[in-house]
Amino acid sequence: MIKASEIRFPVPDDTNLDEIVSAMGDGRNLLEEATSIITRTFLDSFDWRLHTSGIRLWTELQDGVTVLRQNGIPNLSPAWKSILSGAAPRFSADLPPGPVQDAISPLLDVRALLPQVEIKSRVRSLRLLDAAEKTVLRILVEQNSTRIPGKGKYWFNGYCIRLLPVRGYPKPLARMRKLLRSRFSLSETVTSVMDESLQSIGHSAGEYSSKLRFEFDPSLGAVQAAKQIHLYLLDVVEINIPGVKADLDSEFLHDLRVAVRRTRSALSQIKGVFTDADLERFKSRLAWIGQVTGPTRDMDVFLLGFDQYRNSLPQKYRDDLEPLHDFLLNHHQSEQRLLVKKINSPHFRSLLKEWREFLEAEQEPQPGDLSEADIPIKQLASKRIFKMFKRVLQDGMAINDESPAESLHDLRKDCKKLRYLMEFFQHLYPKKKITRLIKSLKELLNHLGDFQDLEVQADKLREYARQMVEEGETRHSTLLAMGMLVDGLLRRQQQVRLEFAERFEKFSRPENQHIFKALFAPGSKKGKA
User: Fold this and answer.
1) Are residues 302 and 264 part of one domain?
2) Do 343 and 456 belong together in one domain?
3) pLDDT for residue 419 is more than 70
4) Residue 112 main-chain phi, psi, to 5 deg
5) 362: in domain
6) Alpha carbons within 13 A on the beta-carbon side of 371
7) Residue among 106, 114, 115, 110 at smallest CA distance from 53
8) Is residue 111 one of the residues assigned to a domain?
9) Residue 42: which H helix or E strand, with range?
10) In Å, what is the CA distance from 93 to each residue of 89, 111, 391, 413?
11) In terms of domains, do 385 and 351 share one?
C-alpha cells in the first residue's frame, strides 16, 4: 500500500536486487534488519465502496500475528493498526470500535467486506543512518507474489523498492531517489501494489457497480442501443449469481432483482425494436425470476429492518419479538436453499443462455414488424420519456383523498418506468438538467415506495403470524407485539398518504414541466449531451 509520503519504484524482473542494495549502501551507513514474510489481504465490498471513497483496508499477517490496517481515512494516521484475535471482519459491525468503524460503517451499510486480492511479500528492511547513527530514511525491498484470496498457489508479481521518508530529513530521500533514477533507470509509480496485484489476477478496483453506465451516440440505431442495455443488465445478473448462491450479503440478490426489473421495463418501454414473438418469448420467463427470488428478498428486508421494528415498540414489549426473529432466520435459510435450487435449475440456466444468444445475434430484417428498430436512439428515447412523463403527470393529478391505494401503486410503477428510461439515456441530454429531473423523480418514488412498502410489510407480518401459529405454539405476547407492529406500520402509511399531494406538487411544479418539455417534447430544441 502506498502511504501518502512514501515513494515506490517497481523493479524489472531481471534486475539484480543485491547490486541495487549494494549501491544504496556504498559509502553510506546502511543497516539491514531482519527479512520478514508479510501476507496482506485487501478488503472491500463487492461494489468497491471503500475504493470509491479513497480508502484502503487490509489485514496483514506477520510472525503469526494478524493486524488490520488502513489508508485514506481522514484525520487518521496511515500507521494506525489494530490486532485481530479472530477472523477478518466481515461486516462493519465486526470492525474494532473507533475511528475506522465510524468511517467505514456508513459507506458499507449492509454490504460485506470481501477479500479482493492476497499478496505475499518477502520484505528486506533497511535503515539509512547519519553520522550520529540516527535513522534518516527507511527502505523496504519487496518481492511480491499474488493469488486470488485463499485459492491456489501464489504467482510472482514483481519486485519493488519503497522509500519511507523520516520527518525532518528530506535530503537523504532526494539523494536516494536520484540514485535509483539515474544509475538504475528506475521510475517512480503512483500505482499501488494492490492495483498491480489485482491486475495480475485479471481484476481491477471499481470494476463492478450496479449504477447504469451508458454513453450512446445520439444517432445510434434504437435496436443496437436496446441490445447494449439488455446485455449490460444481463452481465449484472450473471455477475451477482455467485454472491446470491453463497448468501454473502443481501445486496447481491437486490442488485440481481433490480437488473431483472430494469430489463423487463426496457422490454416494455423501448418499443418497436424486437418482434412481438421475441418479446413474448422472454417477458414471462424474466418475470419468473422475479417471482422465485421474491420470498428470499422479503426475508432479507425483515431481517435487515428487525432492529428498527423492535425499537419501534415500547421497551417492555421488545423481547416478545424474539420468536419472530427466530422464525425469520429459519425461513430465510429454507427460502435460500430453494432459491439456490432454482438458480441451478436447467430452466434458469437455459433462460440466461437463450437471452444472451438472442441479444448477441444479428438482427434479422422484419419488414413492418420493427417500426422503431432503426431510428436514432435519441429520437426514440425522447419520444418514450415524454410520453411516460405525460402519463405520470395525468395520473398523479387525478389522485385525490378518495383515490384507492391501487392508484398510488400504479403511479409508482409508471414512475419507475420513467426513471429507468431517463437513467438509460441520461448521457444523451444536458447533465445538469436531467440530473435535476431524475433527483426530483426519485424523491417522489421514495415517497410512493414508502407507501407501498409499509402496506406490504403489514400484510407480510399478518401472513407470518398465521404461519407461526400453524407451525406450532406461538406465545400470545408475540402475536400481540406483531399486531402492534402492524398497527404502527399502517399508521405510518396513512401519514405518508396524507403527504402525497404535497410531494407530487413538488415533482410536477412548472419548472420541472418546462424542463421535461424542453428536453423531450417533439420539435423542442434539445440541448447537447
Assistant:
1) yes
2) no
3) yes
4) -85, 150
5) yes
6) 5
7) 106
8) yes
9) strand 29-44
10) 8, 11, 45, 35
11) no
For residue 10, which phi and psi values (nearest 5 degrees)? -65, 145
pLDDT above 60: residue 391: yes
Residue-wise pLDDT tens digits, 296-312: 999 999 999 999 999 99
Distance CA(214)–CA(228), nearest Å, equals: 9
Cα–Cα distance for residue pair 426/212, rounded to 1 Å: 10
Domain boundary, last residue among 344, 367, 390: 367
Q: Is 236 found in the same domain as 172?
A: no
Is 257 in contact with 293 (CB distance < 8 Å)? yes
In-domain check, residue 26: yes
Owner of C-alpha cell 431524475: 438
Whether 33 and 176 map to the same domain: the answer is yes
Number of structural domains in the chain: 3
Which parts of 17-128 fold into alpha helices (H)? 17-25, 49-52, 99-108
Grid cell, residue 319, equals 423481547
Question: Which of 30, 33, 37, 43 has the alpha carbon at shortest distance from 71?
Answer: 43
DSSP state at residue 403: S
The length of the chain in residues reads: 529
Q: What CATH number is attached to the domain comprising 438? A: 1.40.20.10
Domain that holds residue 495: 376-529
Q: Are residues 193 and 245 in the same domain?
A: no
CATH number of residue 76's parent domain: 2.40.320.10
354 and 404: one domain?
no
**Per-residue pLDDT reduced to its tens digit, 72-117:** 999 898 889 999 988 899 999 999 999 999 999 999 999 999 999 9
Claim to verify: residue 363 and residue 385 sit in the same structural domain? no
> Which residue type sits at 6?
E
Beta-bridged to residue 137, according to DSSP, are 128, 165
Strand-pair category, 114-129 with 29-44: antiparallel
For residue 199, count CB atoms less than 10 angstroms from its CB and return exposed for 0-12, middle for 13-18, buried for 19 or more. Answer: middle
Return the closest-CA partner of residue 351 out of 239, 238, 261.
Answer: 238
